[in-house]
Amino acid sequence: MGYYVIAHDGNRYGPADIETLQQWVREGRVAPNTTLEDEFTGTQVRASLLPELSHLFPATPPPPTDAARQPPPMPRSAGTPSGEATAALVFGILGLICCPVFSIASLILGKQEMNRIDQGMSAVEGRGLAQAGYILGIVSLVIWVLVITVWMLAFGTMWHEASRSQPPFSPR
Amino acid sequence: MGRVVLLLLAMAGIASIAYWIQPYVERGPTLCLFHVLTGKPCPTCGMTRATCALAHGEWAKAIRYHPLVVPFWMALVAMLWTHFVLPLSEKTERWRGLSLWAFLAVVGAGLLMRMVEWLR
To answer: Of A36, A130, A118, A44, which is closest to residue A83 (Cα–Cα)?
Structure first.
């Protein structure tokens, strides 16, 4: 479950999960009177009233610091996709044409990169690549499972028949 | 279920499958599309057979199939650990980057190894 942070300028940031919100509170980015909006229900609540965050705020509000005046992290735009997004796509392609291990790597990398982009920790330009890597990872894993199953059934039966038709010891 | 347990279960699953499919992998034709299309082995060709041999504890055989099998799996597990188990925060970013580069380095070394074979 996540919350959008409604900043003083009216912009919405997130959604951020509880762990991220707690980190933002510790960094002074979320103040007790900051408005949070439930990701699914749209219900708005003050940060200090949320049980998971209330214990992190001091009893008396401290004077505003420079950090408190900073808005929560916005989606980062670096102009180019991150290396991890590119790697997710490359591993996805390698998973299709080389080895199923790359499919696992692309699936995990792609999913993680999408989470990082959602939390403003990576460039938004990489979303397409990360998503493509994630989907390729799933598709190639499914294909590998099917191919290996069919392959084992076909050759397993063939070898079984061959071993039954041969004598156990061949005469010299 | 914790992510550590999930990762351990996935690794145990891979090891079990590798143990079980070894006879099929060693006798059957290649499944590598790159090898089928070009006739040349790809950077990770032999890795499945090497992993199966490792699952049986046959170290020498595993290294003969693919010399980089041990660093490959170490780098892959490190990458899965940093990307799947570690929490997403600025502090863990460095480890994610390092593990990705380590994995890419092993794959790059495999590519160099194969390029030497292709040029022979």
So the answer is: A130
Best B88, B93, B95, B98 residue to mutate vs chain A (most A CBs within 10 Å): B88
Map residue B1 onto helix, strand or coil.
coil
What chain A residue is nearest to B75 in terms of C-alpha separation? A105
pTM, two decimal places: 0.64
The CATH code of domain A2-69 reads: 3.30.1490
- Tens-place pLDDT, residues A88-123: 999 999 888 888 888 888 998 899 888 888 887 888
DSSP A6: E
All CATH 3.30.1490 domain ranges of chain A, comma separated, are: 2-69
What phi and psi values does residue A34 have, to the nearest 5 degrees?
A: -70, 140
State residue B66 phi and psi, 5-degree precision.
-150, 110
Give the residue among A20, A100, A166, A3 at the shortest CA–CA distance from B17.
A100
Place of tokens 């914790």: B2
Q: List the single best residue of A98, A109, A141 to mutate versus B (max B Cβ within 10 A).
A: A98
Distance CA A46, CA B48 (A): 54
B104 within 8 A of B58, measured Cβ to Cβ = no
Angle between helices B69-80 and B3-27 (to 10 degrees): 150
Q: How far is the first Cα of chain B from the last one, in angstroms, to the nearest whole number? A: 50
* Residues A128-142 pLDDT 10s: 899 999 999 999 999
Exposure class string for B72-87: b at 16+ Cβ within 10 A, else e:
bbebbebbbbbbbebe
